[in-house]
Amino acid sequence: MGGAKNLVVSRCTWVESDPLYLAYHDREWGVPVHDDRRLFEFLILEGAQAGLSWLTILKKREAFRKAFDNFNPEKIARYGEDKIGALLDNPAIVRNRAKIKSAIINARALLEIREQYGSFDQFVWQFVGGRPIVNHWRSAGQVPASTVHSDALSKALRKLGFKFVGTTICYAFMQAVGMVNDHTISCFRHDEVSS
To answer: Taking Cα atoms as reference points, which of 112, 124, 111, 114 lies closest to residue 153?
Structure first.
């Protein structure tokens, strides 16, 4: 009787063994996103992650969604001091006043972008010509922390008043929402995401 063979799945080496992290890598990271609310969610979460691990943010993501009205920019744009106070008292999220206030500022700026460009989606995707950049890295060590594309996106967002959108945060955002495919070529998701 032949036993089932253990299939070893090759992933990007940065992926940790936590099931939440594995699911994020295997189903979400690098998949093109064109929904304004989801793009906004990723931008806010990448900013919240500054100085922390991404796994910390993944573990708090559902709490963030609940606390921030499912990342509805219209609602967040109207948050006042009472709501900021409630968020600062919420142990389930990252309680950093500057990061919380940046989410509000960014929601307001996103609404301005919608007025000018029609959607946040159209605005951000123009920085990669509307199509994902597919890289062919052999190792995670080759993946840059920022690029000319993230520099340009960061500069444009800051000019429009966004906060917590430095070039490194913007590049992580671009990777997360599939503007860039930075799965290493040995990772099973590289070709899946590319197609």
So the answer is: 124
Q: Count the neighbouring beta carbons within 10 Å of the beta carbon of residue 69.
A: 15
138-160 pLDDT tens trace: 999 999 999 999 999 999 999 99
> In CATH, what class is 31-194?
mainly alpha
Q: Please say if 125 is a catalytic residue.
A: no
pTM above 0.70, yes or no: yes
Contact 11, 25 (CB under 8 A): yes
Q: State the catalytic residue, choosing from 46, 79, 125, 171.
A: 46
Sign of CA dihedral 92, 96, 71, 30: negative
Per the annotation, the verdict on 117 as an active-site residue is no
Confirm whether 54 is a catalytic residue: yes
Half-sphere exposure at residue 190, Cβ-oriented, CA atoms within 13 angstroms: 19
Residue 133 tokens read as 């950049």
Q: Where are the domains of the chain?
A: 31-194
